[in-house]
Amino acid sequence: xxxxxxxxxxxxxxxxxxxxxxxxxxxxxxxxxxxxxxxxxxxxxxxxxxxxxxxxxxxxxxxxxxxxxxxxxxxxxxxxxxxxxxxxxxxxxxxxxxxxxxxxxxxxxxxxxxxxxxxxxxxxxxxxxxxxxxxxxxxxxxxxxxxxxxxxxxxxxxxxxxxxxxxxxxxxxxxxxxxxxxxxxxxxxxxxxxxxxxxxxxxxxxxxxxxxxxxxxxxxxxxxxxxxxxxxxxxxxxxxxxxxxxxxxxxxxxxxxxxxxxxxxxxxxxxxxxxxxxxxxxxxxxxxxxxxxxxxxxxxxxxxxxxxxxxxxxxxxxxxxxxxxxxxxxxxxxxxxxxxxxxxxxxxxxxxxxxxxxxxxxxxxxxxxxxxxxxxxxxxxxxxxxxxxxxxxxxxxxxxxxxxxxxxxxxxxxxxxxxxxxxxxxxxxxxxxxxxxxxxxxxxxxxxxxxxxxxxxxxxxxxxxxxxxxxxxxxxxxxxxxxxxxxxxxxxxxxxxxxxxxxxxxxxxxxxxxxxxxxxxxxxxxxxxxxxxxxxxxxxxxxxxxxxxxxxxxxxxxxxxxxxxxxxxxxxxxxxxxxxxxxxxxxxxxxxxxxxxxxxxxxxxxxxxxxxxxxxxxxxxxxxxxxxxxxxxxxxxxxxxxxxxxxxxxxxxxxxxxxxxxxxxxxxxxxxxxxxxxxxxxxxxxxxxxxxxxxxxxxxxxxxxxxxxxxxxxxxxxxxxxxxxxxxxxxxxxxxxxxxxxxxxxxxxxxxxxxxxxxxxxxxxxxxxxxxxxxxxxxxxxxxxxxxxxxxxxxxxxxxxxxxxxxxxxxxxxxxxxxxxxxxxxxxxxxxxxxxxxxxxxxxxxxxxxxxxxxxxxxxxxxxxxxxxxxxxxxxxxxxxxxxxxxxxxxxxxxxxxxxxxxxxxxxxxxxxxxxxxxxxxxxxxxxxxxxxxxxxxxxxxxx
Length: 944
What we know:
The structure is a single chain. By secondary structure, this protein is α/β, with parallel strands linked by helices. The protein has 5 domains: 20-271, Rossmann fold (3-Layer(aba) Sandwich), CATH 3.40.50.1010; 323-555, 2-Layer Sandwich (Nucleotidyltransferase, domain 5); 557-667, Taq DNA Polymerase, Chain T, domain 4, CATH 1.20.1060.10; 721-860, 5' to 3' exonuclease, C-terminal subdomain (DNA polymerase, domain 1), CATH 1.10.150.20; 864-943, Alpha-Beta Plaits, CATH 3.30.70.370. It has 40 helices and 23 strands. The strands form 6 sheets. It has a 6-stranded mixed beta sheet. A hairpin with a 2-residue loop joins strand 9 and strand 10 (376-381). The longest helix is centred in the last third of the chain and has 37 residues, at 845-881. The radius of gyration is 31 Å and the shape is globular.
């Protein structure tokens, strides 16, 4: 992304006598210019930062590039013919920033003032016009360069047509397209049709990304051949997705294929490069008060428009696009001190760490990047080594010497002062990772604070609309494609560690991340106030970052001996179950093969309900087997048992042993703050939130999670928090009163719905009421409840109908949430978190139904998630104030797990319960009490 003031590294020039057409993607230039510069206004108050940046870049392009024909192509409107094909195309893209909107017409005016053709056309995208002009030019034998880094334009690269990436100043030809997509340009459309595009809302085929799509297209040749032969795909899920989503793939192809047959508004001849007339451009520049550009063209006018008198300094491209100023490599202490002083003077710095891996508890710190403003960034290498030989890869060459870099301990001491300085706001993307890595460094580690996280900002503002990774946000908000990790480290067996990367490449990659982060922060942070999301970010998300850093570093002790014993037991159980299954089937077969199981159940045994998919195999999913088991099939029940034991063994008892950190003897899960649209945290590597607790085998796994000697594990969880929120939000007075009176809510529901007096309540009746209570929150259907209770569907639907008749407020709530979501595209938690639900307007009934269920559940589940986040943020200072030795280890949705010395557990339990039960106050003012239950023991199983 960095660029010096030297001549642009342009694409190869046209052949002698050959015309050369440059087609500039105007939208890319606009957004690059807008995000590169701080706010600027002309004398009348009109914002003009994007206008200035665009003007400076356009002048530089005209000055430096070999072109005799040039045009800037713009999008005429947000909607075009693709919206007629697929109404949701680009529907989720956020509106342009408010201060950019008045600059759009000024940028078009600027283009014309500089004597450059300004082309747009209603009903078509700029890309279609570019495709058409490229075709027309090639038919005349011209050379064509498309000035853009947009991946959608890469399908146009061919002999005589290349691209030029203005952000990285590099040509994009056939080799670069293959590097990007894994296929040559002529197959890019097929790959995009399969992979889809979340930014533009191109559906694609679920579960297929760019890499898989490229492999499939290379193997089968093209999209239609692949779809026709989808039944040959060996992977069951991939095969099923391709067959079921073939129409989506074809629609996607129509969306991503660029039209090259548009009747363009201006002929090629009119695109000839014209001299910029100072007399024509100066009135425009003076109206905008662009002093440097005015000085340049007044100088030209004074010299009769000669080329002499133009200077790189007066064009000031580095002001127009900060990245063009170049990134700095900091290799000595004096330069580092200079950067730190600048950050302290400014009071804000974006930072990023480069490490040897993705596991923050095991990765070594390699370097740190800083950014002070757009384009003003540096990289501080700390532990780079010379490139190590890898056999034939380097031809047996000796290892290179370590490059010059700042001494590690001295650098860390200086960075510690900066990153812990309370007067300097630190900005990072996925700050939790960087903060955890830095906290582990020797000399006491670094406790980064105060901190802002652009990933969390994006999540708070647009949760449910798209992902929140840095690369995706750079593309979405900045129109920029970040340097990929594999571009600097390679991939596969030839991949090197970041510590081995040459410093110039490391600088550009690392500094770009900090640069993009500071740009995103300037873009996203101001939106909190305008969109009324300050409370969600400042009281729920940002305070949680240091809490999660501490939790992940604490980890939890796991006894590997217990896990190995359980793995052995599970293996024996599987063998026993396989024998019983084979006995019931009357023959041996592969129990893990859905195809063979289907043939046994429906062909050999003749059980009803068998349905073949498009591949010709019977469906044998959990829903099918549960239905058969409910109808009395012992074999189906045994297979369900076998599958459960097999999953427990592979996913937990085997995998958890491998997850134990050799340095700590503990398992350190990583919490994703942006993994669920509702606000819930998700646990990964390993996932400790999905350990099953409803079965005896699942509960046994928790016995392996133990306390250190002299300590106990304390578990505190909310009692029926989501039902309490339903009673409050839906206004169910009888349920509210039951909670206020401390009654058994499931017995109370059973009594009211089924008309059974409490003193005559049976466990079965209560069980049915419990299933309805929890099922209603998730929009359970009569079919789903019937399967859960093992009763006929009609009977289950009657239960649901009776529930709604007794509690009409539930139905009113559900209807109002669906209507609100359809109108606004999102629903809200009681704390004000917006949960965007794209599926609510989907034309596919199944997807729309899914969206409706999400609209019903999200305010409940999301509010519960917000409550425990508030509790976690409040517990940290509460425990510190009480001088408690307790350490928070885990969060599992409504439960928190602590490790506490035995003599402090009762006092800690009392404090934690108090904070958790008061977490909603005073913000929510709930009409029902929150109740937290506490338990403790030597293991998690004993505590919970």
